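Human: I would love a firmer grasp of how sequence relates to backbone shape in proteins. Could you go through the record with me and say what the backbone is doing? Here is the record:
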Amino acid sequence: MNIAQFVPWIDPTVTQWSAEARWLRWLTFVWLGAGLLVLFSASYAVAVAEHGYGLHYVMVQLLWVVIGLVVFNRIVRTPLDRLIQGSGIVLLVLVGLVSLTLVPSLGVTVNGATRWLPLGPFMIQPSELIKPCLVLQGARLFGRWPLLTWQTRFTWLGIFVAILGLILMQPNLSTAAICGLTLWLIALAAGLPYLHLLLTAGGGLLAATVSISFKTYQRQRIVSFLNPWADAGDQGYQLVQSLLAIGSGGFWGQGFGLSQQKLYSLPIQYTDFIFAVFAEEFGFAGCLVLLTVLGVYASLALLVALRLRQPLHRLVAVGAMVLLVGQALLNMGVATGLLPTTGLPFPLLSYGGSSMVASLATAALLVRAAREINLEAPVPLRRQWSKTGDAEPLPLRVV
């Protein structure tokens, strides 16, 4: 058994990768390592209070990190075309799991939302696990759009709409929004007609409006986001405490582990509002470093997309970048009051097994796309001449 199949940073073939793949690989590991340290600080006090053991959440997270790294390494070692071809079946299986969360006897409800399924002593969130599959299938659909029949187009568009609808029914507006936005941006990068994109965007806004109209708590979040100080003790409580934590950080921060808001006031400090803990402990300077890392990560991803020749590979790189960096920025926007309060985790930082596995799988798709730069053929070969005299191009692949 080759240990390199399970330990991503022990890989003898890495010297043959493109520079972008190597940089993205190590930036992912740096992001992951920093996230575990921030989680340790954010969760230690609440873990002691709830479980009597300060490392409880970190140890559980480490278990999911191990699983995620095995998935990461497997994806990085699998040709992207094979991943794209198998994405449809995996996506449909996960759609079934998302549907099971709505079954009263199976779905687990937390804070009024039914998003989880029990898995022994743990819980999985299928709506998180489905994200990397949406990137692959979205690239497969929109990258081949001109070659497909309208029946095939409408079939997969209907599946995408059903997925977003099921996630909205949990209810989980934030996850539905990031999934819909990712698919929309993949379609935009694929060059679909602007009229179709505008109609789709309008439909998405209409669906969000309907969801907000029927969900009282979602309306309250929108109102409290506009002026959280008007009801700082109830509806605006989360955002007010997050702003106080960020403001307390000043320029240099309070220091690692020295956040005060996480001890008494800041809610869900190790998941949705973990950025507020980071900002309080590392200050404005630390936030600039974090934004720089995200900027470098996004720039490398866009460079990969520009260097790739095959359209489907480019779209996978774009989708993975949007899902990772875009979701991180949305989480920061919620914590700073730029966006309404939603339950959207910070990739590779927030506590959550499904989010961790999905984030590492998405990062692996980006690294694999970067690896394809050195594997794509500069000149296509040709099959033997057929009886009609036509030649069919055969792309050269090195696996």
In short: Residues 379-399 have pLDDT under 50 and may be disordered.
